[in-house]
Amino acid sequence: MSLEAQLNTDLKTAMKAHDKLTLNVVRMMKAALTNEKIKQGHDLTPDEELTVVSRELKQRKESLDEFQKGNRDDLVAGVKAEIAIVEKYAPKQLSADEITKIVTDSIAKVGATGMGDFGKVMGAVMPQVKGKADGSLVNQTVKAQLNK
């Protein structure tokens, strides 16, 4: 089932259940997909859909960080609930050990010797973990492995 079809199904379910939070999040996801579809000028590939889901998830996580820094506990719970809903549409995230293994393999593959090769390593790693790992976590892991 495509992401769009899944969102339509979940939209109907949320409407019937009078689940306003899920309804709003699903509508935002559908709008983001539609906007991306218009921007690209064609139906989205699964990879492009994944990019949109990742972007939506990242935006909510950044909002959560800002609300926590600003001591806005009234908004934190709502954003956490939104993140939980959006995560249903994202692929399973890789563990830190899995990311470390991918980074280590990529370092060996590109022949990286130090921080000067950071860009090469990131270029090799990111396509493998696209949508399955947080970019900042990958960045930290690459730096840690190159500094060994």
TrEMBL record:
InterPro entries: Asn/Gln_tRNA_amidoTrase-B-like (IPR003789), GatB_Yqey_C_2 (IPR023168), YqeY/Aim41 (IPR019004), YqeY/Aim41_N (IPR042184). SUPFAM superfamilies: GatB/YqeY motif (SSF89095). It holds the Pfam family YqeY. Gene3D superfamilies: 1.10.10.410, Uncharacterised protein YqeY/AIM41 PF09424, N-terminal domain. This is Transamidase GatB domain protein.
